[in-house]
Design a protein that fits this description.
InterPro entries: Kinase-like_dom_sf (IPR011009). This is Aminoglycoside phosphotransferase. By secondary structure, the protein is of the alpha+beta class. It is globular and about 55 Å long. The protein starts with 5 loop residues before the first helix and ends with a helix. Strand 7 and strand 8 form a beta hairpin. The chain folds into two domains: 76 residues; 167 residues. The protein is 42% helix and 10% strand. The strands form three sheets. It has a four-stranded antiparallel sheet with strand order 1-2-3-5, with no helix packed on it. Strands 4-8-7 form a three-stranded mixed sheet, covered by helices on one side.
Length: 262
């Protein structure tokens, strides 16, 4: 991915040169105390307004930064403040409990927000897959997923009232000694908080070898994990992953579904 142009650095008052950051989708760059990403549009503008000055007990956020003329983006790029913290040890169950607790604290701070309009109009892979998980959209799934999806639907019951939630917490909570967890790269959805927590448990089961007892230890309903697994498998199906990847993920989703009783 190309580094941020000089005009973008000047717009945000960032010193150069920028250096690439590991993790995520490989599109983030650090310049001084700023992190720059190729990101703009209605979702980003909304996040800028919501996260600007947001605080609460039990979490930190990567605060959005305006350009010198007050905009949330410039030439398709955005900026946030650098936050101290490192990715946690994903082999430890306590890590996942900490991620879920950070998400709960963050969601409490968002509970007053009204539904943003884009949550009903987005058409990216993730948004479509989310609607599939909630039976709001019917699309043909890859044949490798049809059986496990049917079993998961049998467990995917109601989860309570919706609000704005971050539905990609698993790799987006950083930890630092003596500081609350830092929530980064917010992916906003209008769903019950338990669903976002279910995504964390589903990811832990599928990709990090966590035991089925994690859901109970975290107080996350089985129905939330079932919907989250539907969300993840529908995303894989929607984005047209290669056959070998689909087969591997189908195996992981099947084992996770069996772990929660589907």
């Amino acid at each position: 991915m190309a580094d941020p142009p000089p005009g973008v650095l000047r717009a945000f008052g960032a010193p150069g040169p920028a250096r690439p950051l590991p993790g995520g989708q490989g599109t983030s760059w650090r310049a001084g105390d700023l992190v720059l990403k190729p990101e703009s549009g209605p979702v980003h503008e909304w996040l800028g307004e919501v996260l600007d000055g947001l605080s609460g007990e039990g979490f930190r956020v990567a605060a959005p930064v305006r350009t010198g003329d007050g905009a949330w983006s410039h030439a398709g790029w955005s900026a946030t403040r650098w936050v101290e913290g490192e990715p946690p040890d994903y082999t430890a169950e306590q890590t996942w409990l900490g991620i879920i607790e950070a998400g709960r604290a963050f969601h409490r701070a968002l509970a007053h927000l009204r539904r943003p309009g884009f949550t009903g109009t987005r058409q990216d892979w993730w948004a479509r897959a989310d609607r599939v998980a909630w039976q709001e959209l019917a699309v043909p799934l890859r044949p490798e997923f049809t059986e496990v999806a049917a079993r998961l639907r049998g467990l995917a019951g109601p989860l309570g009232p919706p609000q704005v939630v971050h539905c990609d917490l698993s790799g987006n909570v950083l930890f630092a000694p003596g500081l609350p967890p830092a929530v980064i790269d917010v992916s906003p959805y209008w769903r019950p908080p338990a669903y976002a927590e279910g995504v964390v448990v589903a990811d832990a089961l599928c990709w990090h070898g966590m035991p089925p007892s994690l859901a109970a230890a975290a107080g996350v309903p089985v129905a939330a994990v079932a919907r989250a697994l539907l969300f993840r498998l529908a995303t894989t199906s929607e984005r047209g992953a290669p056959d070998a990847e689909v087969r591997d993920e189908a195996r992981r989703y099947r084992l996770a579904a069996e772990a929660i009783g589907a």
